[in-house]
Amino acid sequence: MDRTWMSANRMSKEYRDGVKDFVRVAVAHAKNKSKDTIIKIICPCLKCCYRDVSADELEDHLMWNGIDKSYTCWTLHGEKKTKSTNLRNAVRDTSNDFERDTYEFDRVEEFVNAVEEDLRDCPKMFERLISDSEESLYNGCTKFSRLSAVLKLYNLKVANGWTDKSFTDLLILLKDMLPENNVLPSRTYEAKRMLCSIGMSYEKIHACPNDCVLFRNEYASLNTCPKCSASRYKKETAPAKVLWYFPIIPRFRRMYRNEEDAKHLTWHADERVVDGMLRHPADSPQWTKIDTDYPDFGQEPRNIRLALSTDGINPHGIQSSSHSTWPVMLLIYNLPPWLCMKRKFVMLTMLISGPRQPGNDIDIYLAPLIEDLKLMWETGVEVYDECRKELFNLRAILFGTINDFPAYGNLSGYSIKGKCACPICGDDTDTMRLEESKKSVFLGHRRFLNSKHRYRKWTQAFNGKSEEARAPLFLTGDELHEKGYQYHATQEEQQGKGLVQAK
User: Residue 460's domain spans which residues?
Assistant: First the structure.
């Protein structure tokens, strides 16, 4: 059978016809065909992991879950391996599905370059994968290696939402069932440690306990903070505060190395319906403005547009504890709307450890992420696109942020307290000070309503006055930038005067 349908869209006629032909062949070669028994067939869908299902379930599973694209020789469904099949599979494994029957030298060279990039990002990954993939699950086992067994089991855990405790119980039971010389991990922690080699690398960066600096670059060799003289360590070796950074560039490379993900990353340009309705960030004026102002960036649909989100959480779940850890996440707006917010595509890039929130000093911690984002905006990085089978220069832009108002103030540096707390109104903020509670309230929101709206004349429910004022004009991006520049210049001037007076 032709296998090109396996890579087609599951909604296409090509895929549906391919599934029907596959089911027909699988039923014809079923081993337990009998009038008195239900035919059981091994299901190669992504969810079943090759367990037995009925013939009726097989077609439904392949349509809903998709087929395992690495299952190219259907030995479990009646096909026999031949020399040509083995040669074709060897070529496919070498060039990563570049060609079905032949391969070209230049594409193999591109593949080698891409693999070298991955190994440069994760230098220990290759050695661990080779070791675990070559080690049999137990002496005499030819079907499973240590790596393949753990991967199959972990896929079941994720697909069915098993807890870590239940997965540990399963591993203990399976380890007892298998021969004594088996190498199956006995705890979830050990399985995760083993699979870490497949994941991305991370950086553990020491930070000043007072949030002054990160001990990196020019401060990497210091033991005390150059600004507040606080010690870098609690004891001799334990760091006082740690930032966990998960580099984003290797993760973008890996996404484009997956054919399905690479295809989804250009959904906004290839499959989005353009009818003037706002259904996706790509329909917004901001998206169009970026394409217009930066045509070199906008002409490449594979360039990534990101949203940054951060907030404080209490990982211990104790209400009386003031501990605050801040995760920093990136969301990818290239993806279709049903995938943008899926956990699989929400990238955790940083963990800023507690015990207190970083506040306005969060920019100190964001420095490694900002450096990578600047690199991806200014020059880009070379990435291999598995969908188009080519190398290209990938760039990225920070499209927006998602956060509550306090976190907005920390990220932007804008003061969200006092008389001018509204970032839209600015100096025209309508403020009232409550002397008894020592708080500022903002009651001028009616001026944003239509000039003839009935709430403008409604005095009893508000402050006893009708509203005749008009909404302030919104500032453009250039005006906001200029205003911020003037503000910081004023702050520096006042600080300079303070230093002179102190002397």
Answer: 426-502
